[in-house]
Amino acid sequence: MHATVNSIEKLLVEDEQILLTIRCSINVYHYSKVPRPGLLAATTLRLIFISDANVEGGEYTELFPYQDVHTFKLERRLFTKRYYLKVEGDQFTFTQIMDEEPDKFATTVNNRL
Questions:
Q1: What is the pTM (predicted TM-score) of this model?
Q2: Cβ of 66: how many Cβ atoms within 10 Å?
Q3: Quick one: which H or E segment has residue 9?
């Protein structure tokens, strides 16, 4: 089952709203580096990633409050795009971005930092 906006909405706190969502994969270590496809949302308070539940290992969720985010940037290569996120000493990479305007998402997040 693909992660949906409804899945994200269940995690929202009072007065938190979804600004933008984007389909992508987060690279995590599960015995080896594995991309987990899912939905990344920029809300008024934080970034939320929920993986698709049909992937081995079940649903995977990460919450990144903006006050903990040091850097969020978009890197473009010839055929690929990826987001880099630095949070409290950890770095996360989002790949397989399925969006025509990845700059808009990056700008929205950076305006919240």
A1: 0.91
A2: 16
A3: helix 5-9
